[in-house]
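Run log, item B.
One chain of 101 residues. Sequence copied directly from the ordering sheet:
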Amino acid sequence: MKKLTTTLSIVSIMALSNSANAGVSTANQTKISNNLSKINMQSHWPQDISLWVENNPGFSKYELEGIGETICSVTEDVGFYTITFWWDLSGSGKIAKVKCY
């Protein structure tokens, strides 16, 4: 059930649309972060090309890479960025990194 809810929430990010550019606009950053928070994953954009996500639900590295690839595929037109999954958003305990290019 957790995976189904996660997939449905991530797919809802597909509503994002914008022409591709170097970074992600503030509006699209907010939309992506809001959808991640629906599945209890807090996020932070330290730069417009870098999304940090906290692994609060406790997904495995493999699951996080799959979530990251899904996010990338449904947001391919919002800009180029990298998703980094952390144990906490203080920047410690990097788990996985996925590039959305």
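Observations after the first pass:
- The CA atoms of residues 23 and 77 lie 11 Å apart.
- Strands lie at 43-47, 50-54, 81-88, 92-100.
Flagged for discussion on Thursday.
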